[in-house]
Design goal:
By secondary structure, this protein is of the alpha/beta class. It contains 13 helices and 17 strands. The strands form 4 sheets. The chain has a 7-stranded mixed sheet, sandwiched between helices. A 6-stranded mixed sheet has the order 13-12-14-15-16-17, sandwiched between helices. The protein has a two-stranded antiparallel sheet with strand order 2-3. Helix 3 packs across helix 5 and helix 5 packs across helix 7. The chain starts with 7 loop residues before the first strand and ends with a strand. Bound molecules: cytidine-5'-triphosphate and the ligand O=P(O)(O)OC[C@@H](O)[C@@H](O)[C@@H](O)CO. Ligand A1H0Z binds next to strand 10.
Length: 402
């Protein structure tokens, strides 16, 4: 059963120019792990099943860019609307599409509750969205807040301190915010040009024009807005960090799963969730499909067969078909165990070239292939008789290729 009985939609203002961040590309279109920032907020709304429509408001010159992002990343439930010269005007344009059903390509149901969330706030989870929506249903309006980091002060005309506010009594207004649609729409309809051109707070409009005191909901630390360059770097490292939380070991060499899983756990000391699967890649394993439907983007493939490229190709095909590489680069580490008596300590150049060519090919599918060849040479038994120190029983050579 859906947790929200009301019809809920979202408006994501993405029509700014990103002056404070600098650069030619507006920040909402800057890439994080190769994907535009705006796509993260859209994806966050898409993950919430009870949000019916997602209105993305972009400046006229970026409509085509936004259309290509929606197509490339397979975003659903998205309607693109032309923005205005200010954030409030953009949000108002986004709301109008419901009130006047202006959308050309699909019939949009006017929601009971509308979420407003800056498209440059990539980290928003269903939990906070549910909280602000439920609070808006009860109070008419609701917004996420966070403790102030700096104290708010007012300066006099002489540029000196006039007074400061008691920081503990104040909060920073963040997003997401949610409103009964009729309240926020009526508020925008009554706005003066000064409101629309200089205002920065939707909650204030609900109070000023509809006498609605928004419910304030404590938000989490990751609700911050990407404003300056440093915010982009911070967002990228948070995303990278979250992507590296899980690794999936795939092999049909059963003992390898145990050893590699144990060694990975030991070496990464619980920073990483290791999902180990002993599988023959030739079958369409449901366990593997579950992994693909999750959030795993790192795969360690261990095999001890010569020329396992055919099986690796099958894995790449399965990855591609499951759309895993659509949103983030997938890292595929091929570990080839080559254990035999009479091995020559050199990998065939032809084999290496073949694998490098394969890696180049799949890179175009956003799958990054790295290889580790472990050649383990066992000395003939008579060596053991000579009392060779135990450590020199096997020579280890590996070749990294990518
Ligand atoms: N005319 C505008 C201005 C801003 N926004 C959006 O409102 C959100 C928050 O605004 P802000 O961080 O100020 O974005 P910019 O206006 O682009 O930034 P700057 O003030 O540095 O130019 C952003 O997603 C931005 O794209 C919008 O939809 N339409
Ligand atoms: O458009 P700006 O970045 O200047 O301001 C936006 C912020 O004021 C806004 O996102 C929150 O304060 C919540 O309203």
């Amino acid at each position: 059963m859906e947790p929200v009985s009301a019809a809920v939609s979202a408006v994501l203002p993405a029509g700014g120019s990103g002056e404070r961040l600098g650069g030619a590309t507006p920040k909402q279109f800057c890439g994080l792990q190769g994907r535009p920032l705006v796509s993260y907020a859209v994806r966050a709304m898409e993950r919430v099943s009870w949000i019916s429509d997602i209105i993305v408001v972009v400046s006229p010159e970026n409509i085509e860019t936004m259309k290509s992002i929606v197509e490339k990343y397979g975003h659903k439930r998205v309607t693109i609307v032309k923005g205005g010269i200010t954030r409030h005007r953009s949000i108002f344009n986004g709301l109008k599409v419901f009130a006047e059903n202006q959308s050309s390509n699909r019939l949009l149901q006017k929601p009971e509750v509308v979420i407003i969330h800056d498209a440059v706030r990539p980290f928003v989870e269903e939990d906070i969205l549910l909280k602000v929506v439920m609070a808006a249903k009860e109070h008419g309006a609701a917004g996420a807040i966070r403790p102030l980091v700096s104290t708010v002060i007012a300066s006099g005309e002489d540029g000196c301190l006039d007074h400061s506010l008691e920081r503990a009594r104040y909060r920073a207004s963040e997003m997401p915010q949610a409103f009964l649609f009729d309240i926020i729409y009526q508020a925008y309809q009554q706005c003066t040009d000064h409101d629309l051109d200089y205002g920065t707070e939707c909650l204030h409009l609900a109070l000023k024009y509809c006498k609605t005191n928004a419910k304030l909901v404590e938000g989490t630390a990751d609700l911050w807005k990407v404003t300056y360059k440093r915010d982009l770097y911070a967002a990228e490292s948070i995303i990278k960090d979250s992507l590296s939380q899980q690794i999936c070991i795939i092999t049909d060499v059963k003992e390898a799963v145990v050893q590699a899983g144990f060694l990975l756990h030991e070496s990464l000391k619980n920073q990483v969730k290791v999902e180990a699967i002993s599988i023959s890649l030739s079958k369409n394993d449901s366990h593997l499909q579950n992994i693909f439907s999750g959030e795993c983007y790192n795969f360690l493939c261990i095999n001890d067969k010569e020329y396992a490229t055919e099986e690796i190709q099958q894995l790449v095909d399965m990855l591609e078909k499951s759309n895993v590489p659509l949103l983030y680069p997938v890292v595929l580490i091929l570990v080839h165990l080559n254990i035999s008596e009479n091995i020559s300590f050199s990998i065939g150049l032809e084999e290496l070239t073949k694998i490098k060519k394969f890696a180049r090919e799949v890179k175009k599918k956003n799958i990054l292939v790295y290889g580790l060849l472990i050649q383990y040479k066992k000395f003939p038994l008579n060596c053991y008789a000579s009392g060779l120190p135990i450590l020199s029983r096997g020579g280890l050579e590996w070749v990294l290729f990518s």
